């Protein structure tokens, strides 16, 4: 019976054949232990010299790290194993011998590991992070599909900047200038006017020269957009979605979270509703905490967000930011022209902003005015303005950064571990 490591619990006391790589090994004169991985999981294979042919035991003793094998053995329960099972091996067939594998069980520097990212992905820790990432993606599709959203794919090549920023990667689109998308939001607004509730999931690019542990040049965004949804309801969807994703990871990635040493008690508390603090109150709070460098009208940096988040044991919404520091398309507060109906969701434990969202301007005249005030080309945004010309409605949306969310839920320090092949300020290899 051929099986994957993840399937072994179904075959207790039965013989199976597993294709695997040797993650590690140790042996004595009478017994050998092979740490096996096959992509679906990790399991220990135990080979007792007296129970196998001499050549099988010698193969097990001499086999090298990351060599590929077919292993035949009987599945047994093992309470000492994190996986809960082990394989009592009766035969080892060598497929390919790996020599001088560069990533050994010893400690390696970050730059070395990043240079060997194509191999580092094989490690137990990186495997666990990627499984958590996969579960977040799976739960995302499940949540939005179950709540009546339609998946829509916005373009990656665009002719303009969605947020009017200059931090874009420019390219030539035949005779025209084009940019790699930094957000699919404007296109998702068009899709919402056609399909009601929509979401996208795809890569985005920011030419931001930042080296912090929270930043990537290329990252993935989940961007829902909803017609007939105003500010408060938008926040409710966000907290329900984040709660759903966290609880799904807790349910389906217990072994991975244990591998990562994650304190799951901090995740078990992540259920809606989430606390909220206005930008005004956040400024007052920061002044009370000794942050004299921040004034009303300034955007928050990482230290400010962390200080605010530390006062809560759940993600916290910071709402109603000043109009002048937010993009042109955000709906003004009905009673205050100086702030907009927006919110950033700040993750606990110093992981920073994971969601930015707002109610969008639905009045044609006001949006035209904002385009002019931000010195944007009306012709470039003509199609976007037309969404308000033909049956405009109140609508809202948000964007969740996948990698920051993976970092927070899995408990890893740097976002470079949360994407298979990170693109950083000085890294385009491998």
UniProtKB/TrEMBL annotation:
| Molecular function GO labels | asparagine-tRNA ligase activity; ATP binding; catalytic activity, acting on a protein; nucleic acid binding; transferase activity
Task: Keyword check for Cytoplasm, yes or no.
Answer: yes
Is DNA-binding among this UniProt entry's keywords?
no
Q: Recorded E.C. number(s)?
A: 6.1.1.22
Give the reactions, separated by semicolons, that this protein catalyses: tRNA(Asn) + L-asparagine + ATP = L-asparaginyl-tRNA(Asn) + AMP + diphosphate + H(+)
Q: Short name of one Pfam family for this protein?
A: tRNA_anti-codon
Protein's cellular compartments: Cytoplasm
The biological process GO terms on file are:
asparaginyl-tRNA aminoacylation
What does the entry list under GO cellular component?
Answer: cytoplasm
Where does the record place the Aminoacyl-transfer RNA synthetases class-II family profile domain? 130-430
- Key words, A-Z: Aminoacyl-tRNA synthetase, ATP-binding, Cytoplasm, Ligase, Nucleotide-binding, Protein biosynthesis
Per its UniProt record, what Gene3D superfamilies does this chain match?
Bira Bifunctional Protein, Domain 2, Nucleic acid-binding proteins
Q: How does it assemble?
A: Homodimer.
Regarding protein family, the annotation reads: Belongs to the class-II aminoacyl-tRNA synthetase family.
Q: Could you tell me which NCBIfam families the record lists for this protein? A: asnS, PRK03932.1, PRK05159.1
Name of the protein described by the UniProt record: Asparagine--tRNA ligase
User: Which species is the source of this protein?
Assistant: Niallia alba
Q: What is the lineage of its organism?
A: Bacteria, Bacillati, Bacillota, Bacilli, Bacillales
What is the name of the gene encoding this protein?
asnS
